[in-house]
């Protein structure tokens, strides 16, 4: 195994290197809510979203520095965004090439209606 990956695992490198004032208490795994749930694509896919489903994170490079955005996707469909303080940390982790694993931990919705709230868990994903 790569020595750098072993050292990262040993020291929980991503947490210590990428701490910011806003999220100094955050550590992996972290749980957060998806904000700005997309109402345009949600009716097509909301019935597929349940606990344990894996999602993807994408950093929106076209957004201005004051409107940084880390988007949450499910099979190519944009679900929404990470909250700003969480996005600041995740953006740095993604830009440095670290892999993250994202899964749904809670879904809140009314019967026959799109999702009201979506909580996800973000963990470090080490390749062995």
Key phrases:
4 helices; single chain; 128 residues; 31% strand; six-stranded antiparallel β-sheet; alpha+beta
Question: Can you characterise this structure?
Answer:
The chain is an alpha+beta fold. Helix content is 23%, strand content 31%. The protein has helices at residues 3-11, 13-17, 42-45, 84-95, and strands at residues 30-33, 54-59, 70-74, 77-81, 100-109, 115-124. Strands 1-6-5-2-3-4 form a six-stranded antiparallel β-sheet. A hairpin with a 5-residue loop joins strand 5 and strand 6 (115-124). The longest helix is centred in the C-terminal third of the chain and has 12 residues, at 84-95. The model is unreliable at 13-25 (pLDDT under 50).
